Amino acid sequence: MASFQAASVYCVSDLELPTYVPQNHTNYRQIFSIVCLTAAGLGFTGSIVQLITWIISSRRLEDGEERRSLVNPTIVISLAIANIISSVGVVLRSMALLSTKPPKEYCALTESFNMSSICEHDVELSPSVCQKTMIIGNVLEGLTDYSFIVGALLTLSYSADVLHRQRGAIVESQVFKNRPTSLNMILCWILPFLFIAGSTVAVYYKTDFPQRCPHDSRIHIRYLIVYLPITLVMIINPILLFKARSLVKKSITRRTATFSSRERNIIRKMTIRFIFIVLLYIICWIPNIAESCTQVILYYYGTDSPSIQTYQWLFPLLITEAIMNPLQGFYNCFLYGLPGFRPSRCFAKSEDITSSSMEESQSLLSNKTGSLQRHCVIRRILR
């Protein structure tokens, strides 16, 4: 969902999301909220499917199989939980946006709500809600942004874990066998809390919170704190997955001692999967980055009082955010959650193959039983 980082939902002015525009008789606030609710419903459904699928799948995996698999079930399950939290947060925040009135314009110089020319460039917003609603609104805002950052860090953790596992498949080292999954999970859930706490302090420190909505450049600190981790993941994630793809190819040829059409097909499917992970994540969050940069540019280089036409021009970008952000849980279900979209497990009860002997691998490929075992080795690498 488009996140109005200036403050909570009760500070979204009638200029940003008009309740009624006479020119086209449109309620932008209502349209935006309905789009958010619809996308969040789809995202919530996809996340539930991903969560259930991976919980059942992880219970079937033995300890040795889990260590050899391409995907760490703990990370994918945590990613589904983060998407569920974000979907719930978007739903509640959209309902709050519909139920609360836009804030009143307040002249700080004359200490009144009667606007005059002297206050044209120094207008603050006063929330039209009670203090309890203010607290709830800020909690919802923080919770939703928190879940978005957690999802970003878990996406990066997934790519780093895939790379780490494939290094362990090639380099027989205890360092690569002992993956600090628990530490990664703790950092992915605690660091975003520190980010959100820091952004809240940056926005409201030495202000009349919650009686006034922040209106100066301090809100751009929150843009930076919230979207910097997401931007870093956009940059780092493709690099990690590209390196992981190269290592998977080496691991397959090392274990099977060949690289036939079957191996090439497996590599091709895995490459497509990694490309979709990278592209969908970028498509999901690039509108937020663009909107944030636009808001900063308008603040420093635009007019002192942006018109309603300016925000109408930004509305398509806000709608794009409202669609893509909550849908992350929906398409993650297809990328991580459905068994048909990830390499299936090998259920053959043939003995495992080690990669220490080229002759052993070649002898296994010379008969039907060896062909089945070779297929199982490829599946274990990519599982």
UniProtKB/TrEMBL annotation:
Domain G-protein coupled receptors family 1 profile: 46-336
PROSITE patterns named among the record's database cross-references: G_PROTEIN_RECEP_F1_2 (PS50262)
Localization annotation: Membrane
Transmembrane feature ranges: 31-57, 69-92, 183-204, 224-242, 270-290
InterPro entries, A to Z: GPCR_Rhodpsn_7TM, GPR143
Keyword Transmembrane appears in the UniProt entry: yes
Keywords: Membrane, Transmembrane, Transmembrane helix
Residue ranges that the Swiss-Prot or TrEMBL entry lists as coiled coil: none
GO molecular-function terms, A-Z: dopamine binding; G protein-coupled receptor activity; L-DOPA binding; L-tyrosine binding
Domain of life: Eukaryota
A Gene Ontology cellular-component term: membrane
Any one Pfam family match given in the protein's UniProt record, by short name: Ocular_alb
Matching PANTHER family: G-PROTEIN COUPLED RECEPTOR 143 (PTHR15177:SF2)
Protein name: G-protein coupled receptors family 1 profile domain-containing protein
Species per Swiss-Prot/TrEMBL record: Lottia gigantea
Lineage of the species this protein comes from: Eukaryota, Metazoa, Spiralia, Lophotrochozoa, Mollusca
